Amino acid sequence: MRLYVTMNLSTFRILVVGAAAGGASTALLLARAGAQVTLIDRVAEFRAVGAGLSLAANGRAVLEALGLWPALIGDGSGARAIRGARLIDQVGRTLMTPPDGAELAVVTRARLQEVLLDAVMAEPRITCRFGVSLERAGPDGIVTLHDDSEEGRKHPIPAPLTMDAFDLVIGADGVHSQVRACGNFGAQVTDTGITYLRALTTGTGPGIPGVGGRSSESASDAVEAWTPAGLFGALPTSEGHYIYGSADAPDVREAIVQRDLEGVARAWGLAWRPAAALLRAVDTIESLLVNRVLHVNCTRWHDGRLVLLGDAAHAMAPNLGQGANSALVDAAVLVDALRHAATLEEGLIAYTVRRREAVGRVARSSAALGWLAERRHVVARFLRDRLLWPIAARLTTSRQLNQLLQESPEVLRRMVTEAMQQHPNHEAGQGAPVLDARADRAASMVRSHLAASAGRPQAR
Known about the structure:
seven-stranded mixed β-sheet; 24% strand
């Protein structure tokens, strides 16, 4: 442990690109840590889009520490707690039960977005510019923005381009990140060949058979069935179910192409009967979201004053439910790393070192699960369900659960809480010596990286 000079975030102007869960939470935490933040998103007006997501203990810890959990729970119409989805085969045999400590909270994406944006809009150190997209960004922090908002269209030249300079530009703009496209991140975007459908049902829906060895269960059950058509899952929400399923079986794919919701329900019902009733509880075919699964891997997460976060850095298959949760962890670790570093370069390297391999393990495991779930040949499914899953169930340990969460919830709460506490030595607007063991460890981690990049221009 030694004296260490840390940066003063209150002197920083930071641009966050992308106002979904990762970007909004990062903007909020940075602002509460003292930074002046501009949050942009190409969407001018946020509507109730998206389906649902499951918040694990890591994502929940960040949201709780930000003080947003009561708003997410609401009056009973918000997040809903479940123990985790039980994995079954197409006839209802249990393949795996959720391990202890795998509690989840299921929430609609619209609800999470609403709560985050309400908090962002109320934060005086955040300037929100929606309907604004990033055209270009350089490692020097100079950006060109394209303003297609209603205010921007009032100018004599429609959708004018404007330039600005920031101390840090954070790309939280998703799998097709423009920030990533502007920098040197060694990015590789891979099409997994897997397509999933997602939707929210209305009403409590039918019971889901095959859980706990009984012929049927209440609508509060969470289950994921691995079937000849791929996987199909249903997680209870406060108003129905969040459902998701494979969309690559020929008859399912054809019904989607024909925009035939009843055809999708019939096709899936042949593989797993409850899927048909759940799909018929979806309002319209337009409510059925269909997405190709892309995997993003970056050898570097920062380039000068540019840094990536969430799907922009590590988009993964959704099979472990860690996409949004990992973005929330990114937000906490990034701000913590910046707070405990002497320079911007050291902070960004410490963030990368702490996050890249941890989230990479989760992404690889999630991809493996996705591949296994899509095995449709009867022999492959038999070997998987009768041999592989029993072995996997016996090997499931608390250590594996910790690897899935990537960071301890207690550590995440502490990171967020400390970041939001005003640093007494920063009141004068100058960096000051601070005694901090984690800062010392961060310095040790980044020495080799700094030595390797000694020939590059240093940021700040």
